[in-house]
Amino acid sequence: MKKFVLLAALIASGAKAQTAYQDGDKHEDADIPDHVMDHEKLFTMGKLDQLEVREEDSDALKGDLWFGGNRDKLWLKGELERENGETENAELQALYSRAVAPFWDLQMGLRHDFRLEDGPSKNWAAIGFQGLAPYFFEVDATLFVGEGGDSAMRLEAEYELLFTQRLILSPEIELDFYGQNDPATNTGSGLSDMEAGLRLRYEITRQFAPYIGVHYEKKFGEAAGFARAKGESVSDTTWVLGLRTWF
Amino acid sequence: MEKPNNGRIQLPQLSRRTFVTGLAAGAVTGAAASALALPSGLRAASPRPEPRQAVQTLRGNHFDLGIGYTRVNFTGRERQATTVNGSLPAPILRWKEGQKVTLNVTNNLAHDSSIHWHGLILPTDMDGVPGLSFNGIQPGETYRYEFQVKQSGTYWYHSHSGFQEQTGLYGAIVIDPAEPDPVAYDREYVVLLSDWSDESPLEIYGHLKKESHYYNFRRRTVGDLWSDIREKGVARTFRERGMWNRMRMSDTDISDVTGYTYTYLMNGQTPEDNWTALFKRGEKVRLRFINAAAMTIFDVRIPGLKMTVVASDGQNIEPVTVDEFRIGVAETYDVIVEPADDRAYTLFAQGIDRTGFARGTLTPELGLYAEVPPMDYAPVLTHRDMGMGHGDHGSPRERGAPAPHTGHGPAASSGEMHGGMDHSQHGDMGNMDHSQHGSMNSMDHSQHSPGSDTNYTPYGGRGNLGGMQGVWFTENLGRAGHGSNKPIVHLPSEFAYTVDMRADQPMDGLNDPGIGLRDHQQRYGRRVLNYGDLRNLTPTIDKREPERELQLHLTGNMHRYVWSMDGIQFNDAEPLMLKYGERIRITLVNDTMMTHPIHLHGMWSELETGDGNRIPRKHTILVQPGAKISYLVTADAYGRWAYHCHLLFHMPGMFREVRVV
Questions:
Q1: Which ipTM value was assigned to this complex?
Q2: What DSSP string runs through A78-90?
Q3: Tens-place pLDDT, residues A46-57
Q4: Is A117 an interface residue toward B (CB < 8 Å)?
């Protein structure tokens, strides 16, 4: 509960910062050097997709950062989940991204799973596609090959349903598949775990949107067995309160 | 500010936002004007002109212009503008046809700058486009522009460097004719329209690059879907929404940048400032409309007054009387109005997407003003606007318009998705099947084969994209003045990540007033100008038939916010080569869902409106979404010229160099 209050305070201060930002005069650099046609502008976009507290003293952070031009970009994708003050899962991907089709980017690079209390750190090579599928599904599908021949696949899909221009419901789902069993990381071969979320955000501005939602996690097959053996729950539903923001 | 001293006059019905911010602007400006004597140095030391202060007119043949920074306040927040002689808009330059003008332009900015004389026929090194025969004006430097004025009419000037145009660097040019003016009038006004944002242009551009719908607050909601289902049933709704959903496009993408961030200005004044011009009853008043906006296409009308359009892009045309006209970015239209009553009239210029408007007043007496009309309905794109034939399942908001389809063979589809829309089918670029592309002529292939005098390389492949220059046709061209008879050919370069749609059956871009205007005759009884109405006042000068025809596609990817021609962005494109003296036809095919104003520097774009003897000359051609349009060009100016979409944030990609050798 304390965390909810903290987050609310954070959101409030963010809202204030947003106002200050609009009031402040950022126009000094109204024009940019050089000839507009000569250079492609490179941009950086950082996005906190999920900065949230969950029920039962857990919280999560998910975001990415890209830098680049129209076709080539460098992507960083990060994820962090904590429960009772312990980091359950932390990973970072560094990917080179290239636009290969009107709505699709080919991405390849490395993923690092950070060492946690009950598991080793791990490195993976990653290759995948990210883009916008027909019917406006945002899709990210990535294959991972780890040290010692481990393999994994992750499928993510997200959708946006507009109740109004600012009140947006966003269902999303993530499926993780593995090629092998690994008790150390609680993963099992085949479909190992699933996360599904439903988040209702309000875009105070396009770049600043607090949300409430519900988050659901479930383990399957061997992964479920590992969890049971450790006395952990196989599935879990939690309320979340968070913030989506980007620059 | 205004005094409603007459019972007949109603209060202007401005939107709350405009009203509030306008009030704030009025309150703050007074203080700002007195308190803000800026330090000199790199800044022009002049505050924003008081509201209602007329834009200065400079006359003669020698001008000293200083580009600098000026503090302005249009919304209640103070910002920095880029201005000429401290004025936004820049001073009106008044020249006489035949004279030689000298303009010393001093750059007091911290960055490079430039001035381009839009629509003027002049030597390439006087054209003012950095990177093409001119290096721009470095900070602290003065560039001397000197050229003979070879034309008369209404034009304008603006920066061609960075995004300075968005921050205020634009002004009007009025050139009096050497011969007696064929247009009779008692008084005249420049009406210069523009769009102002408190955000910096780079912020706007960044927002579009990161989230291309950033400024669109009319996206479809669950409520819209529900009302569609109630009205049309599930099956039809699903079918209609299906195309947009599969294409991953929004039918409400009318303007990239909207009234969410823009305040629309008339002669540098907000709707609340209410720029005012005087007339005496019975006078003929010439209004010289200039669209100097960065990103906004306007629809202009003066409720209660007919407008007789007498010139387009500075060139006299056979007069056409209308109630309303669309003015693309960079276009100019001169109209004559004859107010017969002692009452005020509102000059009303609503944005094409109806998210805001510029407003002024034409009045016999200061202090009078007329009702400000509500904006018209917001248009929604239909299948037709995607160049998908005339199966118009359009939204009721834009339904019932005639479909002026100009015959590209039997319609292979009735507006549903076909061939070219499904990108996944085009993985194999080398084997592109031309039969898919709406052509019905068996002669096509002989024309497309790479010949000695054509640059067409149908199988250029990915590695050769940079070398391509569009499709050239050299045989059996349609008659001058009557447009293209060629099939639509999509080059392999159009099947790249830069292109999200291709119009296979583009509609007629000529006799179509454009999206959001098509039903104004039926709905409001307003006669709307379209390009088919334009006839030059004097006979066509160059009566030759075109020797070659260039088919060039305007392309883009909304989602990525990438713009290009033939799928190739400016950085990767080779110049279009023209032979000095040759007469060519350019056919533009708009493969995007936006309306693009395309501007060729240094030479006239002679719009083929169906009469070879009276071809109107323009410098900027508005190309409707999913439409094609043709014009002739006489390559009578040596050198390197810019050719681009005049929407500022499309320019970095949708740009070509034209080289006349």
A1: 0.87
A2: EEEEEETTEEEEE
A3: 999 999 999 988
A4: no
